[in-house]
């Protein structure tokens, strides 16, 4: 899934080297969808986090301590390395020097294990995002372990980001098996979330006369979105999962009925007011929300 940025807004473009190596320096060049230059080669920022694990932690644990938590941020991936084993983990939250991760530790850690940042970032200005279009290209050049690497990533400039608050952690908290079945390229489940939203949640809501962008509380849509993520993943399993898909469709149908009876919507009359008593109303006209 392409990274997405709002038109005429600043943002931070990011890239995780697939080699699971820590870059020492990096540059990036941006191109417009039609191929013209958007930004000449410029310096990118390499994550400077580098610390050690402070105490041994066992495989399967959800947390561990580090010598220093300076610069570590929730939602960002980092590299754990121990005795030749290396893995990328996403930080869920931080409490002092205790790091909680999404999922579980893939191997045992000792007090000599390292925890390092490897994300590359580049600050997008409003000049970079002034035209709404898909498939802008970022060409990254970086040096890691003495080897120069070249990779491309893509991003879209959109009028509105996908209108949901569901995270991959929400999905795996309810269905832990999902994390073990996604592809390595979809480390954070972004593709599944986007596909489930675009091709299942939105069409089903539209069929009910509902505009997802006018649901007052985004979290109300999480249960149906999570079930649709499961449906999409089951659909990748081939004929053997057809019965499970049918059962999941029925489950989604029941959840959708429950959802439409309890949604709180706003601004039915398009007066841009959100507190004029327009609640628990099912809208019949669908407004374009992207």
What features would you describe in this structure?
- By secondary structure, the chain is an alpha+beta fold.
- It has three domains: 3-46 and 120-158, Immunoglobulin-like, CATH 2.60.40; 50-117; 168-260, no CATH class.
- The protein has helices at residues 168-174, 178-181, 190-207, 222-235, 242-260; strands spanning 3-6, 11-15, 23-31, 37-43, 45-46, 50-52, 63-65, 77-82, 85-95, 98-101, 114-117, 120-124, 133-144, 147-158.
- The strands form three sheets. The chain has a six-stranded antiparallel sheet with strand order 6-11-8-9-10-7, with no helix packed on it. It has a five-stranded mixed sheet with strand order 1-14-13-3-4, with no helix packed on it. It has a three-stranded antiparallel sheet with strand order 2-12-5, with no helix packed on it.
- It is globular.
Structure keywords:
alpha+beta, globular, 21% helix, five-stranded mixed beta sheet, Immunoglobulin-like, 3 domains, six-stranded antiparallel beta sheet, single chain, 290 residues
- Please state how the strands of the largest beta sheet are arranged side by side: 6-11-8-9-10-7
Mean pLDDT: 84
The radius of gyration computed from the alpha-carbon positions, rounded to a whole number of angstroms, is 22 Å
Helix content: 10-25%
- The parts where pLDDT drops under 50 for at least 5 residues are 267-290
Task: Characterize the overall form.
Answer: globular
The strand count comes to 14
Count of DSSP helices? 5
In total, the number of domains comes to 3
User: How much strand?
Assistant: 25-35%
- End-to-end gap: 16 Å
**Which structural class matches the secondary elements?**
alpha+beta
Largest sheet: 6 strands, antiparallel
| Strand and helix order | EEEEEEEEEEEEEEHHHHH
